[in-house]
Give the backbone structure.
Amino acid sequence: MSTKEELVSNIKEWMKVESDMKALQKNLKECRARKKSLADGLVTIMKTNEIDCFDLSEGKLLYTKTKVKAPVNKKHLMVCLEKYFSQDSNINTDEVCDYILENRSVKENESIRHKPNKNI
């Protein structure tokens, strides 16, 4: 096979793989959206009925809460600095940094997670 034929063959195969990947990504996007919708419904049901865990044949379906600190952005930084320096005029950068990091808002995320059985 000549290099020109090989090049054309590789380009055609690459285009087919690219097309297949796009189709798979579209399908994956739809699956993720459906999974998120189902998870939101399950979280609501499990939360209102105070259910922490469902035992399944494939493992467990767990209701979990995770806390995530809010990111430090300019607005948050300015509010914290104004609050901090209105109380004390002495500037200590370590104290300012600690104050900012300790006073970030905390967000709780609720989700479900599948914990498969251990195969021994």
